[in-house]
Amino acid sequence: MFEICGNSVCGPARHNNEDYYAYRNSDDYAVIAVADGLGGCPYGEIASKIAVESSLEYLDAALNDTDDANDLSYELDKAFNKSNIEILRNCAENPDHIGMCSTLTIAVVTRDKLTVAHYGDCRAYLVRGDDILQLTEDHNLAGFLLRSGKISEEEALTHEGRSSLVNCLGENKYIRPDIYTYNAFCGDCVILASDGMYSLFDDDTCRDILQNADDLEKMCRILITRGGSKDSRDNSTVVVCRILPGTNEDK
What we know:
- With 251 residues, the protein is α+β, with helices and mostly antiparallel strands.
- The protein is 33% helix and 26% strand.
- A hairpin with a 2-residue loop joins strand 4 and strand 5.
């Protein structure tokens, strides 16, 4: 069993919210998804909604017949490419939508496994005990430079390349999302956050996350309040899933 909470807010520096999130919750699995439509491109809010809804629609059917990690990775890859195609199809049917793109990050928890699929710069984190672990790499220029050793982690925090994506849905090509599989345990919390949200993850925010790992509604309320504060420079979206007692039993 799983507890899920999510919220999204339009930041004070933005005129509309191009983030989108959704989730599924059942006795056997939980799915959470966050997408961020590209600012500066047309109809980002439409692209992010298509990305999330199309992929979850595909996974609704696929997950009922999938319990192997390799099969799940394959289905997630197909879900991401289906969403990519749906965005391109929408552009073909609506010429004024041409150029719209979106990021997409999805986490699936089934029994004792956590699988994360990722394309863009929304992030997935795992909260376990006293630790907050970043599970994804940013698919933007700053992330690329960091991984290649050309800038430091401190420089990456403020580098102008943070706003320059190298991967996004809406491109006319086959996409290959990063897919990771981890063991999962009772009490684990998985957090998906758009870049406007995690840019506010300072020491105080991380402390509040750890202190409220058993109260997801309070955690989301604290995070979204900060996302709407004067310190925010973007839209902020967060979805949190916690594995409840009993989820890992009877395997």
